[in-house]
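Teaching assistant's notes for section 4

Start the section by putting this record on the projector. Ask students to predict, before seeing the second block, whether cytochrome-c oxidase will look compact or extended. Collect guesses on the board.
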Amino acid sequence: MLPVATASAIKTTTHGGRANRPNLVNVGTIVWLSSELMFFAALFAMYFTIRSVTKGSGGEWPQAELNLPFAAVNTLVLVLSSVTCQMGVFAVEKKGGSDADRLRKMRFWYLISFLMGLYFVLGQLWEYRELVHEGVTLSASAYGSVFYLTTGFHGLHVTGGLIAFLLVLGRTYAAKRWTHEQATSAIVVSYYWHFVDVVWIGLFATIYLIR
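Reveal the predicted structure now:
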């Protein structure tokens, strides 16, 4: 059995496939996500700057009607995927029970999260197609440029999260037993997934509601 460190103190336990947010991994992940937050903050600043300049010069903003009901449903699916992801974390961190039981529950919830995230990405691609048909392209206007850059970079981050889900799930099938490292990887992926969900809520409010 491998030692497990908690997030609040450097403390070991003797429970093999369970992790309670290790100090080093926790801090390292937070530092990395902080840099990602600054990146998205720059995208938000770009959006509001171009919006202000365009409106100030009498330009139309936005230049097409966005499908708010569709985007709201897509957003709800992504937010719910964060809930199912956290259920997977709870399964990993659950005290008592067998490693096999924790692994089975984690796989179930992470697979659901993956499918919901995939739905979100496909929905966003469908929305892009509809907007292109309406003449809203990356090079057609300032609005098109900033819309596709902000939502596109977020979509790439969501896609990265989907790949991470597959890697975590794949490792559980490839490995002979459920280990501390696998549990830690599952928890770290949840940090990232919650992050991209929160960023999207901000983007949704900015692009679809405030406009």
